[in-house]
Design a protein that fits this description.
Length: 413
């Protein structure tokens, strides 16, 4: 997930054509969606499992040790007066529950497919709810592995049974979003968890098509030749593939478990204003519309998602992507749509000596929340990530709690 801080800003070469958003929701439909939930303040944290980022602290712990660490993260959320945990349960086409579709995650036992002897997602849902926390199940739709060697996958892995589904790019393996059978499979795999457990939301991060890797091509030419007829170019076709995934799974979630929300956490810049007059006053080297083929603006306007959690992972005053300029852009986009806006906050940068001077100030994040109070569409914040919520390297999280979370959290919905 790009929450890991792999953000670069380069000059944007040339102006691209302005995007047209078709089928925007009517005013009446927006009002209907606005009334479907009673949203309180959201105070969340991401609990990342890919590469054992937050949990488990390492592979091979006993079931009791894994469970104790998981419970400790939930207790930390309560102590910080949060009310939601966004738990990564499918980081690399694997599972943190007994899935009939995909193998047990290697990040539990160290061996993909090995039963850890307990049910992490079921436990997380039960224990979170017992503490007054919402549990949002976080899935990565298309990432198969953080390496490029299919023989390292368990023999029964769908990627080995269907090698034609795979694209290797940037030293990693991905399912090909351009194949209808892939989109159907990943939905089935994710929805299995929704059927089994009363999760409060389904959550995607910002990985759809992968982030650009210099000098490499995402080889989906055969799929484009087969399915891309009628599209102006491959970029438009790719955006349609991503749109189909988002629209379809949003509808299926409502059928499988009514009341479960659907949220997406995109990279904070849809498009730069220099590229598109509808874009933000930024100069980001990555634009979700153009580089990830993810038209996040359209998803909000069409009501295909219930929650949007943009990763505004920059400080106030940052030249290429200023928090104070992105916040009003997202507020204006979401206003009146019925979609809940939660701001993704880069707690992991606070106190990191590699970050610019503003991140050394423990009050930087607190200033973000103060600024956000002036924007009516902002319903809360989510912090990346759980390890930093607990360690709190320079006291930034404690400052947020002292300044903004004096009262205990109520459930956000």
């Amino acid at each position: 997930m790009t929450h890991m801080g792999r953000r670069t800003f380069s000059a944007v070469a040339g102006a691209l054509a302005a995007a047209t958003v078709a089928g925007e929701a009517s005013a009446g439909e927006r009002e209907r969606r606005r009334g479907r939930r009673s949203c309180r303040e959201f105070r969340g944290m991401w609990l990342a499992t890919v590469t054992n980022r937050d949990w488990p602290s390492r592979t091979g712990l006993t079931a009791a040790q894994q469970r104790a660490e998981l419970i400790a993260h939930l207790d930390t959320a309560v102590a910080r007066r949060l009310n939601a945990v966004v738990f990564q349960v499918r980081p690399t086409a694997d599972a943190f529950w007994p899935s009939p579709h995909e193998p047990w995650s290697q990040y539990l036992t160290g061996t993909q497919g090995r039963d850890p002897g307990w049910d992490p997602l079921g436990t997380a849902v039960r224990e979170a709810h017992a503490r007054g926390l919402e549990l949002h199940a976080w899935f990565n739709p298309y990432r198969v592995a953080t390496h490029a060697d299919p023989t390292r996958l368990v023999a029964s892995h769908p990627a080995r049974l269907h090698p034609e589904w795979i694209v290797t790019y940037g030293g990693r393996m991905y399912y090909n979003p351009g194949l209808p059978e892939v989109r159907a499979f990943v939905q089935d795999a994710m929805l299995d968890a929704v059927r089994r457990y009363p999760v409060d939301a389904v959550h995607f991060d910002d990985y759809f098509y992968p982030y650009p890797v210099a000098g490499q091509t995402f080889d989906d030419a055969a799929a484009f030749a087969r399915y891309g007829g009628g599209f102006a170019d491959r970029a438009a076709w790719r955006r349609d593939n991503t749109d189909r995934l988002v629209r379809d799974i949003g509808q299926r979630i409502k059928t499988v478990r009514p009341g479960t929300a659907f949220g997406i956490s995109p990279f904070g810049v849809w498009r730069n204003r220099a590229t598109d007059p509808l874009g933000s006053d930024t100069r980001a080297g990555v634009q979700t519309y153009d580089d990830l083929y993810a038209d996040t603006r359209s998803w909000v306007l069409n009501g295909w998602i219930d929650q949007v959690v943009p990763q505004i992972y920059w400080n106030i005053g940052f030249a290429a992507a200023d928090y104070a300029k992105l916040l009003p852009w997202w507020d204006e986009l979401v206003s009146g749509t019925g979609v809940d806006l939660f701001i993704g906050e880069a707690l992991y940068k606070a106190g990191d000596p590699a970050q610019p001077a503003p991140w050394q100030d423990p009050a930087e994040l607190s200033r973000h929340l103060t600024l956000a109070k002036g924007y009516g569409a902002v319903r809360g914040h989510c912090y990346f990530s759980a390890k930093e919520v607990g360690v709190d390297r320079n006291g930034a999280m404690a400052r947020v709690v002292a300044d903004h979370y004096q009262a205990p959290a109520r459930p956000p919905r």
